[in-house]
Amino acid sequence: MIVGVPAEVKEGEHRVAVTPDGVRELSVAGHRVLIERGAGEDSAITDAEFSAAGAETVSIDGAWGAEMVVKVKEPQPAEYGYLRDDLLLFTYLHLAAYPDVARRLLDANTTAVGYETVQLENGALPLLAPMSEVAGRMATQIGAHYLERDWGGRGVLLGGAPGVQPGRVVVLGAGNVGWNSAWIAQGMEAEVILLDKNLDRLRFVDQIHQGRIVTQASNRGAIERAVADADLVIGAVLVAGGRAPVLVTEDMVKGMKRGAVIVDVAVDQGGCIETTHETTHASPTYVLHDVIHYAVGNMPAAVPRTSTYALTNATLPYVVELASKGVRGAVESDAALAHGVNIVSGHVTNKAVATALSVDAVDPRTALAT
Fold first, then answer.
1. CA triplet 182, 185, 191: central angle to 5 degrees?
2. What backbone torsions phi and psi does residue 255 show, to the nearest 5 degrees?
3. Cα gap 96→88, rounded to integer Å
4. 3-class SS of residue 32
5. CB 152 within 8 A of CB 142
6. Residue 111 parent element (H or E)
7. Cα–Cα–Cα angle for 105, 133, 305, nearest 5°?
8. What is the pLDDT of residue 268?
9. DSSP state of 229
10. Exposed, middle or buried: residue 221 (CB in 10 Å: 0-12, 13-18, 19+)?
11. Any idea which architecture 129-302 has in CATH?
12. What is the pLDDT of residue 32?
């Protein structure tokens, strides 16, 4: 199969969807890899490194002309013209948050597989996990930065000082994002409260961190009290394929401390804070009700070298599988990839995505068989 890797065009996006090692794996498996010139520069990977691994460097048209296109982020408006009915697209899609992208893919009859909905039998999301870990670790350091007075914050040092109370960090959701956020905050010696509905998950965190992270069962009252006293609130709630539920209302935000900070990592799934809307790396924050809001939809792009390698370590086996077997063969042999198929031949084929878009879902195997 011919595999194309275009450069990312989303604002502030510096990752690339394959590394030289990935190119080599695909080449050894008998596939041809076309990479847009300069696609890896922001991840400190040169065209010469890709070429040495066996890739051909091409124009943007050449990369998008491949049979399968592998990306990092959902297609942007400038890329809609490349969508077509004989294209297999493998990337983060987040269609619940980006319904216009869904409509474009449906209209073009493109077959689209989303990293974020590839799901193992135990419920794990192997292609979302590495970026969730990066985003979670970043969320705390970003929040700490904006708590500084020069950036409009309360002037709070998360770790406090001898004789001075540390900052209070409230993390909503104990999945990969939330756990990593809480872990970094605890390491900075902040006072950390982690809320989740899953008591088994809270037990796991409590055992690992031996009480250094305060765990609380999530409900409206607990969230209201925690948010009101927080210096930093991190939204880390995930519904696989669906829109994130709103846990923090505008009234709760109004009750927060002046100069407190919100980092809504869930914004790429619609956000779990009522007052957040997606921002960009060029303009990452805004102030509403005297609270700083940070809601960049592609946070890991700020550390592209780390993020590119973390992401491609996870995606490469699936890229090779799709290229070697085709999407129909890969889905028949790998149930996890069947969950990843979001759109086929004008049909939505993931139930959670279909629910979020208010359309009927078609079984991916049925859609691929027609």
1. 95
2. -85, 0
3. 20
4. strand
5. no
6. strand 111-114
7. 80
8. 87
9. T
10. exposed
11. 3-Layer(aba) Sandwich (3.40)
12. 98
Give the span between the Cα atoms of 26 and 17, in whole angstroms: 13
Separation of alpha carbons 118 and 122, rounded Å: 12
Bridge partner residues of 114 (DSSP): 91
What would the two tokens of residue 306 be? 């780390």
Residue (of 132, 136, 79) closest to 108 by Cα position? 79
**pLDDT tens across 147-187, in order?**
999 999 999 999 999 999 999 999 999 999 999 999 999 99
**Regarding the domain delimited by 2-125+305-369, which CATH topology (the fold level of the hierarchy) does it fall under?**
Rossmann fold (3.40.50)
Nearest one of 102, 105, 100, 72 to 88, comparing CA atoms: 105
**Cβ atoms of 65 and 84 closer than 8 Å:** no
**Length of the chain measured in residues:** 370
Q: Which residues are catalytic?
A: 94, 268
Tokens of residue 299, six digits: 């946070």
In the chain, residues under CATH classification 3.40.50.720 are 2-125+305-369, 129-302
